[in-house]
Amino acid sequence: MRVLYFAKVREIIGLPEENIDLPSNIQTVEDFLDYLISKENKYDLALSNKEAIHIACDEDHVDKDFILKNTKEIAIFPPVTGG
Amino acid sequence: MITVKIQKEQFNPQKILKNAEKDKKYGALVSFIGSVREETNSGKVKKLFIEHYKNMAEKIIYKTALNAEKKWNLDYCYIIHRYGTLKAGESIVMVITCSKHRKEAYAANQYIIDWLKINAPFWKKEIFENKSKWVKQTL
Fold first, then answer.
1. Residue A82 domain flag
2. Can you give the pTM of this predicted structure?
3. How many domains, chain B?
């Protein structure tokens, strides 16, 4: 799965994107965030305040209970500030 | 007719407005421009960096325009949003909505900019003389 990071999340993780094979026990966005947080300190720093993290799957905003099964691209970012 | 543009380059609001005014079949035109403020609570802004998620931003803005067009029966809708590094005073976004009557054009314009602010994937970072700061979402 292609994983994209934006803004402050990108800065803390230190990458704009990466490819991550989804472990078989991961079903939802929430599971995936927990998986990243447990992986390395930088993910914990960037993502542990889950309230402040927004998610898009294949370019649509989704909730944390969204099932990732067919997702090709997930974007992880802070609340948007355009306009 | 809907036009959505996302670009790095500066745009000329007068030129865009003039172009929108060419078609006189509508009775009302409302135009909104959002610009880089020269000063915020954190101090004097040197530059504004805008990051975006290209494909999703295009998709969301177009969908928003389409919803507005349908809801308020718009004759014309033009949305332009910049990304990259902008200087204080430069325009960030422009929304033009045209309809037969002013109420629809006003309502649609506000709907578009409000919806864009909470949904379109853009992130602003204010750059000051000695520091920089990601902007917090305001609704």
1. no
2. 0.95
3. 1
